[in-house]
Write a structure and sequence with these properties.
The protein is of the alpha/beta class. The protein is built from ten helices and 16 strands. Strand 3 (about 35-40) and strand 4 form a beta hairpin.
Length: about 325
């Protein structure tokens, strides 16, 4: 089968808006490739802060895709921060399946996490937690700043025995890291069947399939359906989760603020990421209206991670429940 590969280069401030336009015609996801250069096979890399971010999607070749390309070109031209216009080229399915692998290298994140693809070897050092990820068609290789921020925060906040909710699991990278770091149970949901499949396969690859329960679904349905037996996770809205992982987008964070906060246990924390700096204030307002309180904010390369607790939670920004470390207390 033939596909159209669409590529556009944008400045950091335009990534979210451009990715949202691309997702309208490529629901399987958008490849976001930061301008980093790997310096070795052990995970070293650097990033050119002046370079543009490249977004890439693949569409089945055909009349509908040709129409979508014309619409995308028009809509992207209206955005500020487009470094290079949308380019389209025909590729076969084998090229599509393997082309992105050249950008996926072994990467160290935080103190002990190492993310590696199956096609690269790595000799783990003592104390390291190695997460082996083949994302397939799903988002989540660890190369993007938002995923790295989430992994670092999981490493800081996870406690053995935690119950975790992963909203928009993608490749399963966050769920797997949580399981390897001691979480008792992870409930993972994603609207994309490719992501559900990737999460299951990667959980098996890492030996944590029994801890990770993954279903297709949307957190937007949780308030209405949480009490219905059989809906992805019947207890999603009753405040059972010690840790909620939400590496989404600012639009989705604002739309899902209420169920994200409602899912938290009294002393739970939500790691909310995928938002650009310019959207932080709007996301804070939405989370506050939903009964949440932002206790910390971390940034990298123009992206933000918010740590959120229930406004009635017991922890303060400078303290933590035993076993949970606060960055500010280090």
């Amino acid at each position: 089968m033939r596909y159209l590969e669409l590529t556009v280069s944008v400045q950091t401030e335009a990534v979210e808006a451009a990715a949202e336009l691309l997702r309208r015609c490529a629901p399987a996801g958008v490849s976001i490739e930061p301008p980093y250069r790997a310096t070795d096979e052990e995970g070293g890399y650097d990033i050119d802060p002046r370079a543009a971010v490249r977004l890439r999607v693949w569409l089945p070749s055909g009349r509908e895709s040709t129409t979508n390309v014309a619409t995308l070109r028009r809509d992207l031209r209206a955005l500020d921060g487009i470094a290079r216009p949308l380019r389209a080229r025909a590729v076969d399915d084998a090229s599509w399946a393997n082309m992105w692998k050249r950008y996926f290298r072994t990467l160290r994140v935080g103190r002990a996490i190492v993310v590696r693809p199956p096609w690269r070897s790595y000799n783990a050092r003592r104390g390291e937690v190695v997460v082996e990820i083949d994302p397939g068609m799903a988002f989540g290789t660890g190369q993007h700043a938002t995923t790295q921020l989430c992994l670092e925060a999981i490493e800081e906040r996870i406690t053995a025995g935690d119950i975790v909710l992963d909203v928009g699991s993608g490749s399963g990278i966050l769920s797997i890291a949580a399981a390897l770091l001691g979480a008792k149970r992870i409930d993972a949901i994603d609207i994309d069947p490719a992501a559900v499949r990737a999460t299951k396969e990667n959980a098996t690859r890492n030996g944590v399939r029994r801890a990770i329960h993954v279903r297709r679904g949307s957190l937007a349905d949780a308030p209405a359906l949480s009490a219905v037996e059989g809906w992805p996770f019947p207890f999603v809205a009753d405040g059972r989760y010690d840790l909620v992982l939400a590496n989404l987008s600012s639009r989705l964070v604002q739309e899902l603020a209420e169920p994200l906060v409602a899912a938290l246990a009294t002393d739970g924390v939500a790691l909310v990421s995928g938002l650009i700096d310019a959207q932080e204030a709007a996301c804070r307002r939405a989370l506050r209206r939903a009964g949440g309180r932002v206790i910390e904010s971390e940034g990298r390369e123009g992206w933000r991670l918010l740590l959120v607790e229930r406004a009635t939670g017991r922890r303060s920004p400078a303290s933590s429940t035993p076993g949970r470390r606060s960055r500010r207390a280090r």
